[in-house]
Amino acid sequence: MKERIYTIFGKQFFFVEKKLETMLTEYKNKEVDIIKYDLDDSPIEELIQELQTISFFSDEKIIIVKNFEKIDQKKEVKLKKLLTI
């Protein structure tokens, strides 16, 4: 399984959502876990745990994170370390 990380961001919510929707159409007919996190509602620790967990029900997992810009620097460093391992 090839790991890919995409970052979509911008000030125009409509265009960000449209790009995400376009990217997700690639997985429309595949068995894939789609997990959504809004960091306004979910602690960053839950996201980190999800990133470290292997999916048991499908070969691929898509994790969508909203409001990422609201995390503090300490948590951002922790997340960056995890993503570079």
Summarize the structure.
The chain is α+β, with helices and mostly antiparallel strands. It is built from 3 helices and 2 strands, in the order H-E-H-E-H. It has one domain (13-83).
Question: What's the arrangement of secondary structure elements?
Answer:
Elements: H1 13-24, E1 32-38, H2 44-52, E2 60-66, H3 73-83
Parallel strand pairs: 1-2
Task: Walk me through what this model shows.
The structure is a single chain. This protein is α+β, with helices and mostly antiparallel strands. The chain has one domain (13-83). Helices cover 38% and strands 16% of the residues. It has three helices and two strands, in the order αβαβα. It has helices at 13-24, 44-52, 73-83, and strands at 32-38, 60-66. The chain has a two-stranded parallel sheet. Strand 1, helix 2 and strand 2 form a beta-alpha-beta unit. The longest helix is centred in the first third of the chain and has 12 residues, at 13-24. The model has no long low-confidence stretch (mean pLDDT 84).
What key attributes describe this structure?
16% strand; DNA-directed DNA polymerase activity; DNA polymerase III, delta subunit (HolA); 85 residues; nucleotidyltransferase; DNA-directed DNA polymerase; DNA_polIII_delta; globular; alpha+beta; single chain; 2 strands; 3 helices; two-stranded parallel ribbon
